[in-house]
Design a protein that fits this description.
Length: 124
């Protein structure tokens, strides 16, 4: 498996002109591969490792959408659920907005311009 991951990551790294990538493969809740590829920045000799911290920007929206979709598939929530019903302590800076549906507000690019406040708790 490691050889396949290595070749796939290196191909993608070169195809998208990315200096470095950190990858983790998790199976059955256990990390089966954690590895860095390339360097931390162009022209730098510092290698990427499985522990290198990088900013992932808007990729968190895709991760969150995938996690929510898994919960929808497991019938633990619905896209029509309201965020406020699942996370009563969740608040957006516009009171009207915090009553939006799970399938709408969290992935709306306009949310980037809104201060999101979450005081903790568990979704399920």
């Amino acid at each position: 498996m490691e050889a396949l991951v290595d070749s796939t990551v290196e191909h993608a790294r070169k195809e998208f002109n990315v200096p470095g990538i950190s990858v983790a493969v998790v199976k059955d809740g256990k990390v089966v591969l954690a590895k860095g590829y390339g360097v931390r920045r162009m022209g730098s000799p510092e290698p990427m490792s499985e522990r290198t911290l990088v900013g992932i920007g808007s990729n968190t929206k895709a991760f969150t959408a995938a996690a929510l979709a898994m919960l929808v598939d497991e019938k633990k929530l619905s896209w029509d659920d309201r965020v406020i019903d699942r996370l009563p302590e969740f608040a957006l800076s516009g009171a009207r907005r915090q009553h939006r549906l799970l399938g709408q507000e969290p992935f709306d690019s306009r949310t980037n311009n809104v201060k999101v406040v979450f005081t903790g708790g568990v979704l399920f």
